[in-house]
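Example record

Each entry pairs one chain with its bound ligand, adenosine-5'-diphosphate.
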Amino acid sequence: MAKSFVKISLASKLRLVFGAAVLAIIAAALIVPWYFMELLAEQGLQPAAAELTRLRLNEWIRDHPGNPDASSEVANLYTLGARSEGRKGPLFIKLDPNLKKMDALLTPPARQALRMFVQNPDQDSPAIIRTEEDNQTVYRCFLPVRVDAGCARCHNQAQDPKFQYSSGQLVGVIDVALPGSLASGPLIWWTRGTFVIGGILAGLLAIISFAIITQRLILRPVRKLRDMADKVAEGDLAVRSSIRTQDELQRLGESFNEMLEAIGAQHEKLRSANRALDLKLNELAEANVALFQANQVKTEFLANVSHELRTPLNSILGFSDLVAGASDERVRRYGQNIAASARSLLAMINDLLDLAKIEAGRAEVRFDKVSVADACQTLLALMQPLADKKQLALEGEIAPDLPIIVTDAGKLQQILYNLLSNAVKFTPSGGKVTLSASTAGAGGNGGEAREVAVSVADTGPGIPEADQQRIFEKFYQGERSLTKESGGTGLGLAISRELAVLIGGRLSLRSSPGHGAVFTLTLPIEPDSNGERARPREAPPEKSS
Ligand code: ADP
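Structure tokens for the complex follow.
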């Protein structure tokens, strides 16, 4: 058995697939914490950032004592009005009641924080927003400044409606840039690095342990099984599995062993059956040779005996004819009886001689140009007296376009004479016998005919289905009652079929009991270039004893 080419081994496939699966799982497991880590870091920053913002604000107030707006009551607030660019210190943005007007003065992150504080009136915690400034990532901390009860009390004492505030009102936002070390310091990168390294290490460990486990549990026993199967394929049926893994693979190995035992037993049985067959074959061959020799002897004997019988029979016939002409009525009848019996004996001997010649391969065939139409007309004329004697209508239907064919005229005549005399013999008085001839075997529409078919049809009793093949056998005569009164030897059709094959044709029969019989002889217009005698016979004659 041809080994199929293994493109990738099971081990490599397992490692590759498992490795890819492990990497995908670890990557998927890390993606979520990776994205949430930053968020968590920002949230963790919030208290520190708020504290830092207040500290910076107080430092600023301390460093600018002369500022008229600074006061202890607003210790952690400082009014600077609109944002001035380039300031490093904290920035308090005093909000205009008209927030929309204010919006234009604010930076995008400040605007974002302001919106957040307006939407969440209870939020006092800082908002930390990441922004890009001068190609650097900067974290800004925004603190909401809301009016508390103290502020409201003082402000509301003043009668100026410009300074009237309600408690909790958002009046400003403090904007402080956080130091890089605090916001995006190495902590995040460390954490990210740890994540990645942890993931890679976990993946590597998983792959290595998987490789070791699959090697031990699956691949090693599978390799053993494969080696075993290879040895079996090479014809070694003695090999057995020794897998002891206490699992399905061990069971598979044991099944393999059982299968090998069964195959071994079958092999042995087959071998002994083969030996017996060889013996029988030898016996048969010997019997065949003996049969062939016996057949040869029989054929030769038959030919010789038939030949030897003809000479005395001919003289019996001659003398019986003389006796049949005697003046005494009784002697004349005896003479006629002897002559009739001698003639039928001579016919039988002639038949036997013909058959023996054909079977011994000694029948000579002489191919010549023959007019089938002429042959048919001659036969019709020959049969007419016999048909008249039996009160039968004898008709000929010869196609006008019949070609001249190349065949053995004598054999053709002998076959047709046999068929016609059978038809006349078996058709009761008042019936009809028709001899027809036409071309056949045209290859498709308008194709040239390659054969000629000559048929002998009668309106006799027909031939039962069961007898239709057997009547071509030697000495087979079908229904006894029919043939007893008609006489005959049962050799006519056997000889006719042999002769038909000899001249390259075939003889067939169509009949349904009660509706007559049609025997058809089909002959090629031209015999094969190799000579028809070289052709295998369609139905080899049975070797009778
Ligand atoms: P024979 O005619 O000498 O008996 P054949 O070989 O010519 O031997 O025929 C074999 C048998 O086939 C005959 O005995 C007969 O039973 C049957 N048979 C042959 N031709 C016809 C026919 N035209 N109609 C009916 N039966 C036939």
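The chain has a mean pLDDT of 80.
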